[in-house]
Amino acid sequence: MRDVSIIGTGMMRFGKHLDKGLVELAWPVVKEAIAEAGVEKEDIGIAFCGTVGSAGIMAGQSILKTLGMTGIPIANVEGACSSSGIAVRLAWMAIRAGECDVALAIGADKMNRTGPRHAPDHGEDWDMAYGLAMHGLYAMRARRYMNDYGITEEQLSSVSVKAHKLGAKNEFAHIQKEVTLEEVMTSRMIADPLRLWHCCPVSDGAAAVVLAADDVAKKVCDKPVKIVASVQHSGKYMTGFRDMTMPEVTQRTAKEIYEKAGLGPEDLDLVEFHDAFTINELMYADAIGLSKPGEGVRLLEEGESTVGGRIPINPSGGLLSRGHPIGPTGAAQIVEVTRQLQGRGGARQVEGAKVGLTHVTGGGVSGLDHGACTMHVLAV
Are residues 190 and 50 in the same domain? Predict the structure, then answer.
């Protein structure tokens, strides 16, 4: 098995792009990633496109046809919010297995045209049939977490304040605006206790990553970023009681990726979490071992989870600020961490960052914690 590095990234500003279709959003991002990689489009041996299907079938083929990239294997990947995280993992696996030397992973979706589809609609998912959409699920998790660990609404709202302070420095963020604690706590109620500013915006967008075998990467890239480990899991089917404050699949995936990478949470310099709602940051900090159960809020209050602190969480502003087009989110996290490790984080740069982790979950299926969870450890 060969080592694999990221050599090129492409990113656009997430937001409401009502005047553009999915292909128009995505092809410039792919072109940027290939140009940054220092390779020719003919060098790419395989491509994976992560999307939830907002643009219909064959999204990857439609995007790459625009760039004259036809004839190669192109696979479209659907894993809900984890779609492009899975696409990056598949590209990594293809190179490691010797299928090709250079691979492309794309994430693209246009949620403001068709509306987000977070879960199956085939009538067999009882949770969705009875109205348990994602904002309702995470509202329940928030209430359980607050009850068990004494977290206040003010503390929960502070997660949003931090996220938008960082997002205001991110030129790719959907929301480039700081918010006050009062604005968060008086915003419109969505699902008690989650208010409008506790939730990520519905966005359109695209992101892309070019990966290469290490021997190729060293020839074409001044500072390649190695994918040290990549792990993907689906949730386990469970009946009866479930601890809503501890995401089982995230905890299990984190344990495995630390073992594969040969490091622990104390070795990380930054992380990009799947913070679709404010409660996610606290729960996931606990789940991957950055904090003891119920103590994720201490990282926030002591300034450890922001840029300049011990372990910056979502220096990009996360999903709360950057936005969440579903399909591209995993790739966007990897773009952010890659550029941070290369010293290209701009006003939100994490100084001296050498090791970063990305984490994205995907979808809800009745009886499962999540449909998918994908994590990557990147290093220079």
Answer: no
